[in-house]
Every structure is written in C-alpha cells, then in structure tokens.
Design brief:
4 helices; alpha+beta; 15% strand; 3 strands
C-alpha cells in the first residue's frame, strides 16, 4: 500500500460497510463515500482526502436564533 493511503478494506471498515457496498456506492455516484484513487485495478483512498471528506460530514450545532433569522429572510 502506498504511504499516505488507505485500502478499500480499511475504508469499508471505518464506514461499517462491506467492500462490495462501497463499490456499488461509488458506481452509483452516491454522496456517502469518500473520493477514491484508482491505479489499474487497485482502489486506494488518500488519508488527507478521507479526513477532509469526513470533516465535511460533521453536523454543526443547531442555533435556533440564527436559523429563525435566516428563515425570515428567505420569505
């Protein structure tokens, strides 16, 4: 495995999915999988890209005051 990359098996384990499910999700271009790198038949995941993707999935605390204000502005 190249340094700085995870294998498909490692990513599947982190996400609690089977490798086959991970492949189907990529094939169907679902948004719930991290970006991959393909070298011939080898599929690998950059550790940096995976961490950025994971951070993008974080849920921010809900602020009722800000959301109410923004909601009124949308009307």
């Amino acid at each position: 495995m190249p340094e700085g990359y995870y294998s498909e098996e490692e990513i599947a384990g982190f996400l609690g999915k089977a490798v086959s499910t991970l492949r189907v999700d990529h094939c169907l271009r679902r948004n719930n999988v991290p970006p991959k790198t393909k070298l011939g038949r080898l599929i690998i995941y950059s550790k940096i890209s995976f961490e950025e993707w994971l951070k993008s999935k974080e849920l921010k605390p809900f602020d009722h005051k800000t959301e109410r204000k923004n909601w009124k502005l949308r009307k």
